[in-house]
Amino acid sequence: MKKHYDVLVIGTGAAGLYGALHISPELEVLSVCKREVLLSNSDLAQGGIAAVTMKDDSYDSHINDTMIAGGHTNNPDSVYELITEGPKDVMNLARLGVEFDKNEDGSYNMTLEGGHSMPRILHRKDSTGNAIVTALSKIVSKLANVTISENTQVINLVKKDGMFFATLLANDEQSVVSADYVLMATGGIGRVYEYTTNSKIATGDGIALAHKMGAVVENMNLIQFHPTAFAHEDRERLLISESVRGEGAYLLNCNFERFMHNYDERCELAPRDVVSRCIMQEEKKTGSNKFYLNISHEDPKFVIDRFPMLFEKLLAEGFDMTRDNIPVYPCQHYLMGGIKVDLNGQTTIEDLYAAGECSHTGVHGNNRLASNSLLEAVVFGRLAAQEINKKAQKGKKPEVAEPENMLLKSGKTPLPHGFRTKIRHLLQKGFYVVPDVEAAKNSLNEVKEIEKILENEDYTLSMDLVEARNAAVIAGIILNDVIRANS
Predict the structure, then answer these.
(1) Residue numbers annotated as active site
(2) Chain-centroid distance, C-alpha 127
(3) Residue whose C-alpha is closest to residue 47's, from 100, 142, 113
(4) CA nearest neighbour of 477 among 422, 429, 440, 438
(5) pLDDT band for position 114 (50/70/90)?
(6) Where are the alpha helices (DSSP H) in 118-219?
(7) Residue pair 100/94 in contact by the 8 Å Cβ criterion
(8) pTM
(9) Phi and psi for 169 in degrees, rounded to 5?
(10) Residue 126 phi/psi, 5° resolution?
(11) Which has the higher per-residue pLDDT, 172 or 4?
(12) Burial, 265: exposed, middle or buried (Cβ in 10 Å; 0-12, 13-18, 19+)?
């Protein structure tokens, strides 16, 4: 690893990989990921990627669906950018080797998901995210100008005289690299909650780093709780994709009765936040938290062919999708808020960019429309890279001496177990589907105390300690924003 790079890309999900791919080959790029390249929320994305690619579809229709799902609180300019730029990126993914499912006549097989007025979601079975990041990682890993460093965590990020300095932690050893530009693509915050559909690396690290640098982080209370996560006790819960309901699955209550028609005319295909709140209302009505998803009325062969990954994973848990009621319940899924960026991914700190789930483009409003997340990742990942390319054409930045104290202190006391579990419990208690302001206030006080302990005690530096500190920071921001937005 060199001491200096033109661009530092933090994260290797769809936004990070697609962004790195679009950075000029004349620029040297260091791409770091906390674990292996393919471990990300992007990899877990099942349903697909939404884009206007059919003659009977239109930008206006996709824009309208996005605005309705977001409660018309979306940034209209960001939405327009996403919807109009998206199709060329989706078709580019196909050219890069993503084999989206096709019909017998060679046309793309489009599926319907909640909140969409027509089928416009391209997919690869029920593993679309994996298909995208696998194809991108193969290409990016072969680029002469890109160095990928796995199992490497950025634990400190400082800007001095126009230059960025990052402290990296790998194999318990610290090192420092500098970069002219930084693209933050670190994904979501799900592992700060007790239950989430997110991967184990989704601890909000990039958002915490940007916040500590002074970048504006906003609307962290805009969290999407997916209505149909597989209801079991594992912290990382299997998502039962929106596309299962899009293909005809029914949502049932504890009496095995459909109930969504009592709350919304769109029934099971209402936007995610609506369905989650309806489940909470039905729970109060029935006095039971038992809910199920059932697609047994559809052709078994179709179900298995359409959802092979889900079928196998649920079968391993003792449930046959083609015959059984699948237990489901809402859990944390996606963050709509994050690091404030403009239409080119520029944060409020010059030359610091962010793309994907860690950023806040405003494109999702109060609730993300299904399958707009992968679209946002590639569109704004590319736009950020292109803006970096433009700036880099002005020439190299002058050399800057490394700031003092870039290496973090490591104490002698191993981190005790329980801090992150406590933080998760406090956040879950303070904000789950429907905000509870009083609970949020109580939780915030306790989170702040934990944050002080983690910063001031003489704990041994480790990835666990860094993640615990970041979790406390993220939970504090979320709870603050919940209180502010509901007071």
Answers:
(1) 272
(2) 16
(3) 113
(4) 440
(5) confident
(6) 128-140, 205-213
(7) yes
(8) 0.94
(9) -120, 120
(10) -120, 30
(11) 4
(12) exposed
